[in-house]
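User: Need the bound-state model for iron/sulfur cluster:
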Amino acid sequence: MNRNEIVIKNLLPGSIAEEVGIEVGDALLKINGNDIYDTIEYRFLICDENLNLLIRKSNGEEWEIEVEKDPYDDLGIEFDDPALENPRRCHNKCIFCFIDQLPGGMRESLYFKDDDSRLSFLQGNFVTLTNMSDEDIERIIKYRISPINVSVHTTNPELRVKMLNNKKAGDIINKIKKLTEGGISLNCQIVLCPGINDGDELVRTLKELFQFYPHVSNVAVVPIGITKYRESLYKIESYDKQSSLGVIKLVTKLQNEFIKKVNEPFVRLADEFYIMAEKDLPEEEHYGDFEQLEDGIGMIRYFERCVLEDLIFTEADGKGREIALITGTSCSKYIRNICDVIEKKFNIKINIYVIKNEFFRRKNNGIWFNNSR
Ligand code: SF4
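Assistant: Bound-state model below.
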């Protein structure tokens, strides 16, 4: 029996599915004898020249339909995917979880904790692999669900169990080994917590992950985000100027070692570390192809590059008009710099209004942060 009921919601006009008599409301039960677990499996299974589709019509009849097509032709079927509409819930209780630090009364979806490798592949979500069975890992390898974004935090088994508050969290290295041996690429993330997984623990984690290079192609290190809503939670401090400088020093040393070996830094720090430390950001080249941009790695350099590239092809005279721009505190210096260039190019004046985020309200080294992971 199918684990999911794949009910067809729409057919593209002139599609193969329409031609062979499939209708909206039919259920797709099997492709070439295989159950269909989710959209990813469906996409994989239809990449064949000869398909045998088992369809249940709305009157309950089951039809077997033979389809001959080019391997990458789409069938033109659209369906709701129950597996992706109900993503796997997270089974952890991380000591640094940002969702636990949200105030009540906000949009319900903000409180949902997902931990689903399919969302990692489709949408870039990070997963901890703690709720993943051997069978799940085999499916990922079979269907080439790659790359996957993995929240590692530490490779020390006892420390990971403590940080994720999950006794199943300790075997991360074995899972990474199985996935990478199966040809899956991983982008890894470490949420750094002062005095917990930084210092020697960070060195250990990065060196252990580097053993899997290039399958583990890069590691993002981001600082813990702390809000004012964590009174009853595990006591953790934020990074400040001094501790951020310490992280930069330690990681720069490791980056140089990795560059000597593989000609790239392998580990990169979130922009926030440089801002808190009041250090210049690394140059654009440091970030390679900006693989971990959405994790805040190189976001400012990428923004600058995009604006400067667009300016080359844009001509206009603003005739001295003034415009207002609202931004947050931590990136305001960089926004000002880029606005200076824009002002000159277009003959305009940009008034920047810096808004302190008092909603989450956390002040580090004179800078207000609302970073979240
Ligand atoms: S940080 Fe992520 S994995 Fe950890 S408890 Fe929160 S949602 Fe789950």
